[in-house]
Amino acid sequence: MPLLESGAMPVDFRLIDPDETSNWLASLRASFHATWLVEPLAEDVRTLWDYDRVWAATEGDTIVGTARSWATELTVPGGAFLPGTAIAAVSVLPTHRRRGVMRGLMTSDIAAARERGEVVGVLWASQAPIYGRFGFGPATRVATWTVDVGPGVVPGDTRPGALTLTPVSTEARDLVKDLYERWRTRQPGEIRRREFVWDVELGLRVRLRGDDPWSGTLVIHRDAAGEPDGYVRYHLEERWERRQGRGVLHVDELHALTDEAYRDLWRLVCGMEWASSVRAEQRSPHERLPWLVSDGRTAQPESVTDGLWLALIDLPRALEARTYQSDGRLVVGVASADGALERVEVDASTDGATCRPTDAPADVVVPATALAAAFLGDVSLRVATVGGGADEHRPGALALLDRLLRTLDAPWCSTYF
């Protein structure tokens, strides 16, 4: 891996050995000002991590920066899956910041992902200004929804037998995983989850970093034929006022394959006793909830913010994989933050698209971070380029590319990592 001259000693960027896990975690802990215990976590993660993707920046024998990743898949408009690298735990010791350490870590992982044939990079950004330098743009958004609850909040009746209170078990885990997998194939912006995550989410495994295991209620929805088609996980934050239950019901996760399942699951949580409100975090800002409740004003999104950040590592494959709602042909120049320019010819139609590298002059040049942000259709490309600018060489080219990238189904990623 390349070396970086940083202070008195050069910094090397390399993969770690499993026996360096404790030192790696200690560096991450110091960078994040965390309080979790290193050794128990190190013992746990050694069985979970892919050490071909655990990076360290080292200065002599000291780990001064960390990053790691794992293989995932991203659902794009039209339902195709793109292989990608999910990047997390990017950190630099306070004593080594602003010396290029993070750049070395990020470029090392992205270069390795490109060699593996991965098409996209995804991450959740702890600090928004950082990752545009590496071509990442905020491609989905998330919101917290709150609803005042009570009988009749979601009008109508739920079919008898549609909802089943389900004890948590390995069988229930497999059922929920299967429902999620079927759901994510139709949701642009969603990603594949790692196997152990399902045990953590359902409380079958203690959370990493020593947090208390999840403890809540799981309900499965079934269609008229008895086949599972949705689920909800929730827990109650108990509160009492004048001997009246005024708790907050937290919706930890809710996914449905049909409109009926979506209505019934929300009807369940919005009519729960002992609660005066429902709070659902990590949801889509485009939730249909206001159209379900009797008074749409009682269901409102708050704390709308960026969700999954996306980088297009293999630009031609990414643009060719997704579907388009209109037809158009143009040469797109994509400018990286370091001044490099990649040009691709895009020929898109409602029947499919082809995309190939080209040396032809670009009809429009856009920043890589803006194209990544608009790729899934959550934001207009013309909005995403208002800050970084777009260089249009053919009249109407920016409007054409903006129109091509728009989608009917808003993207959403419910999977935080």
| Amino- and carboxy-terminal Cα gap | 26 Å
Q: What level of helicity do the residues show? A: 10-25%
Name the strands of the widest sheet in spatial order: 1-2-3-4-5-6-17-7
Percentage beta strand: 25-35%
Shape label: globular
Poorly predicted runs are: none
- Quickly count the helices: 10
What is the arithmetic mean of pLDDT? 94
Say how many strands there are: 22
SS-based structural class? alpha+beta
The whole-angstrom Rg is 23 Å
Can you summarize the main beta sheet?
Answer: 8 strands, mixed
Note down, in words, how this protein is organized.
The protein is of the alpha+beta class and 417 residues long. The chain has helices at residues 21-32, 38-45, 101-116, 170-184, 195-201, 259-270, 315-321, 368-374, 381-384, 397-405, and strands at 3-6, 9-15, 54-59, 62-75, 81-92, 120-124, 137-138, 141-148, 163-165, 217-222, 228-237, 240-241, 244-245, 247-256, 275-283, 299-306, 308-312, 328-335, 341-349, 352-357, 364-367, 391-392. 23% of the residues lie in helices and 34% in strands. The strands form 4 sheets. Strands 1-2-3-4-5-6-17-7 form an 8-stranded mixed sheet, sandwiched between helices. Strands 9-10-11-14-15-8-16 form a 7-stranded mixed sheet, sandwiched between helices. Strands 20-19-18-21-22 form a 5-stranded mixed sheet. β18 and β19 form a beta hairpin. α1 (21-32) packs across α2. It is globular and about 65 Å long. The protein starts with a strand and ends in a 12-residue tail after the last helix. The mean pLDDT is 94.
